[in-house]
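Thread: Newbie trying to understand structure tokens

Hi all, I'm a second-year student working on a class project, and my supervisor (Dr. K.) asked me to get a predicted structure for one chain before our next meeting. I've only ever worked with sequences, so writing a 3D structure as a token string is new to me. If someone could post the tokens and maybe explain what I'm looking at, I'd be very grateful. Here's the chain:
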Amino acid sequence: MAILFIDGSNPPLYPEWQAYVNEIGQRLVAVSPMAGDTFYFYVIDNPAVNAMAFPDGYIFVNRGLISYLRSEDELAGVIGHEIGHVVGRHAFRSNSVRRLGSIAGFVAAVLTGTGTVADLSNTAAATVASGYGREFELEADEYGARFLALAGYNPLAMIDVLHVLKDHSLFSKNVMGQPNAYHGLFSTHPKNDKRLNDAVLQSQNLLPETLSESERDFWEMMDGLVFGDEAATGLIKGETYYHGALRVVIAFPQGWDVTNTAAEVLSRSPMGATHSSISVQRLNAPSDQQTPEEYVTKTLKRDDVTEGEALEINGYSAFIGKIEVATGSARARRIGVIYKDSSVYLFRGEVGPVGDPVAFEPLWRSTLESFRAMTADDLRVANNQRIEVVLADPGDTYAELAQKVSIKSYPEETLRLINGDYPNGEPMAGDYIKIIQ
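---
Reply by user tm_fold:
Sure, no problem. This is what the structure looks like when written as tokens:
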């Protein structure tokens, strides 16, 4: 089986892309020295521009990287490079295996949505993402170029991918003021790396007389792909809060005003905080084994909680209770704690001086009971920016196209980047280009 699922309840978020990447990967493996061995290929719903390989034949490609590519050959170049790491036994030769730990936990976390590559404090992920050093990265590129040629792809795509990644690096640094984290040929090669160019040119001699057909129509596949990650740092739609990286959904009472900051999510009744409010904070799990109730008494050091109840909310251990109102004008206060993964979610509720504690109670309870893990459908709702593939008309400019897209920050520069025209290029009439809607 080429694509591994943890169980039937966790199908891939993008089944067509999962199948597509697997088809390309298996085609490349078939011309490698490991033909016949089992490889597993995954598309991860992560906006980061990255891909990685584990020594047991597990290859991960982020959705974010795919969105910047422009052909099946380029996608094959990324996958071929990662296969090269496995074929070259780079994890073993670089003494990284002892730091990798168990693949099973990492794969399970990715596929079940309990974590993401960007968010996991996982030794395996950190080790692989750090790369294998220039010599092994070059060797992976040489392998990749060879596999591309033997499989009927254009090995020059390896150079094209390098340019895509280098342009993304410039954009991240000069426009966004952020470092880039691509671990492979991105971080180890200069833009015109002679050794890589020589390897690619040599690989061209391996091209078959008749090139193979593409596995699928790349541009047809690209049309409709999710772009970016609106929910990655928290997104509110109506009264529902989505957090893509943490894979959390919370539904607040209907008609309430919901806002979020880096520190908390705060909801207020239509009459304002003097009526009722509910807030949520994410905190680190305790270092020792504590139940949610013990977390309230030992870590938060609350001795004013009454009528506490330990319970399970959508599969997660939780505790809710009332807080004695000794000071202030509040008519009632509530506290709730829910454990999820390596985090504690602290809920606080308060009924203000003009609020109704009786009416507040079911709203408070339903808010906590709404806490659940994100589903694929949730992600589709939360992340609604999509790539749209169009034909460029004569005279089109990215400045004009930027006025029609849904990108909020640096739309013109982003359009140039995803179309391979960063920093100064313009669309060529008749070419397929990507816009964001």
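A couple of things are worth pointing out once you decode it. The chain has a mean pLDDT of 83. The chain is about 35% helix and 20% strand. Feel free to ask follow-ups in this thread.
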